[in-house]
């Protein structure tokens, strides 16, 4: 059969139904039960767990000047960080902090890989805690695997129920602590016991608790593999001189089981005994022997277990170790690899980080704990008063960013004969905002009609270092 152009028509053969094959594009998740491991890096992981959680759970309970030391009071629009009182107008400092955190992450990643992920990331920390609870309730890895494969029974139901109950209690306490950073935690605790929390407080406690329960209890490595963007763009920060968890293929291959007394050279084998323990301890379930993979979070659990195996078979440690790709390929020593640490990328990150940190630090140090907003009274833009003087009324929003009451002297300048017709002093309580109506007058012939710039000067009585100058416009009618 041909087409209208004379070319042969292409026909599609019909495949019989019995020859069709269903191909699934979705790979079902295999549950990972990581094996417990002991060693230097496992100890450091638990040290970081204790440090981060003591800070997170303990910080809201600390007091400073008879108030909560760290409190982001959204209702009052004041943020307390020990002796520092910030307002929404100070949002720039939060921006600076986020930029510092971002460049710190870039710098640490360029130098030493994903140390944040492996030792301090909340996902890693809470997964470690949940795994510890699971181990205490259900047993070690072998016992958990047997429990997973066994049929439902009273023992299995009891262990699973206890485990989930402990997970839920821990998650709710985590959610309560999180909300305690945004509402006074002692009041929050009293309201919780009385069941009198507001709807938003209940929502965020359960929401954050549910997120902790789901991420650390069920999703675990799925968050690191598929949800966290860091796993995807880490390659842009890595190079061949970045310290990462590496497997020495030249030394380890060919791998294979052997007797402890056997000579691996005589058998034509490398140092790897193919025990697969490095895979069993990995929280993301990868085989580090396949090289650098984006799923590797740099926790170094495989380093600890491999060193333990090397000790048992009498081989030198370091088959799996923290090293660089250039270091492994060229057989460099630690000192040689450290010399390559100060490369252009690292120097640029360091310079930018130092500059931003210095700028934010100086800005906070030189910050005046007084803020003033000048708002014109729109009810009367300008008016004539006694003796023909011209008067404008302004509203000053004075924010006292200290934790002691302050008395401020108000002055005005900018036009001949300009003066205040209202009280020149005002008292503002600690961390409070007070609106003050200020009447400003000038002589009849002091200025032509139109708008004229003036300046308000507000100074703390007894502390000349605390002062603010704000510009305004004085209107003279025609």
UniProtKB/TrEMBL annotation:
Keyword Iron-sulfur on entry: yes
Any Pfam family the entry gives: Fer4_5
Regions crossing the membrane: 39-59, 79-108, 165-183, 189-211, 346-366
Alphabetized UniProt keyword annotations: 4Fe-4S, Electron transport, Iron, Iron-sulfur, Membrane, Metal-binding, Transmembrane, Transmembrane helix, Transport
Domain of life assignment: Bacteria
Keyword Metal-binding set for record: yes
Ranges of residues in domain 4Fe-4S ferredoxin-type: 263-291
SUPFAM superfamilies named among the record's database cross-references: 4Fe-4S ferredoxins (SSF54862)
Name listed for the protein in its UniProt record: Cytochrome c oxidase accessory protein FixG
Organism: Hydrogenophaga laconesensis
């Amino acid at each position: 059969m041909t087409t209208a152009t004379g070319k042969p028509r292409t026909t599609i053969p019909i495949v019989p139904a019995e020859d069709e094959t269903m191909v699934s594009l979705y790979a079902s998740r295999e549950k990972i039960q990581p094996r417990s491991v002991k060693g230097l890096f496992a100890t450091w992981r638990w040290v970081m767990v204790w440090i981060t959680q003591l800070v997170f759970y303990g910080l809201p309970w600390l007091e400073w000047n008879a108030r909560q030391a760290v409190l982001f009071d959204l209702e009052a629009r004041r943020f307390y960080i020990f002796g520092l009182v910030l307002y929404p107008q100070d949002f720039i400092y939060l921006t600076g902090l986020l930029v510092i955190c971002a460049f710190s992450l870039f710098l640490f990643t360029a130098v030493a890989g994903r140390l944040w992920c492996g030792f301090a990331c909340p996902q890693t920390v809470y997964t470690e805690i949940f795994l510890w609870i699971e181990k205490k309730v259900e047993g070690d890895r072998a016992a958990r695997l047997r429990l997973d494969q066994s049929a439902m029974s009273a023992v299995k139901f009891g262990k699973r129920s206890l485990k989930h109950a402990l997970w839920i209690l821990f998650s709710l306490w985590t959610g309560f602590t999180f909300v305690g950073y945004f509402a006074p935690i002692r009041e929050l605790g009293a309201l919780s016991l009385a069941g009198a929390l507001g709807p938003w407080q209940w929502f965020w406690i359960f929401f954050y608790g549910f997120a902790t329960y789901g991420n650390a209890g069920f999703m675990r490595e799925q968050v690191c593999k598929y949800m966290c963007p860091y796993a995807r763009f880490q390659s842009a920060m890595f190079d061949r001189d970045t310290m990462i968890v590496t497997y020495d293929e030249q030394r380890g291959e060919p791998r294979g089981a052997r007797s402890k007394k056997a000579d691996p050279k005589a058998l034509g084998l490398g140092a790897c005994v193919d025990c697969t323990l490095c895979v069993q301890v990995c929280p993301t379930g990868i085989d580090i022997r396949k090289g650098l993979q984006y799923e590797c979070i740099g926790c170094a659990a495989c380093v600890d277990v491999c060193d333990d195996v090397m000790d048992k078979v009498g081989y030198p440690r370091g088959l799996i170790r923290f090293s660089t790709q250039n270091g492994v390929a060229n057989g460099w020593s630690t000192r040689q690899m450290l010399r390559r640490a100060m490369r252009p990328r690292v120097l640029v990150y360091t310079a930018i980080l130092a500059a931003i940190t210095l700028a934010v630090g100086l800005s906070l140090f030189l910050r005046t704990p007084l803020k003033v907003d000048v708002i014109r009274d729109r009810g009367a833009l300008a008016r004539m008063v006694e003796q023909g003087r011209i008067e404008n009324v302004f509203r000053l929003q004075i924010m006292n960013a200290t934790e002691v009451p302050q008395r401020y002297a108000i002055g005005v300048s900018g036009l001949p004969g300009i003066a205040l017709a209202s009280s020149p002093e005002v008292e503002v309580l600690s961390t409070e905002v007070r609106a003050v109506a200020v009447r400003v007058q000038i002589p009849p012939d002091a200025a032509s009609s139109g708008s004229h710039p003036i300046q308000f000067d507000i100074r703390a009585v007894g502390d000349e270092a605390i002062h603010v100058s704000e510009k305004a416009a004085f209107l003279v009618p025609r």
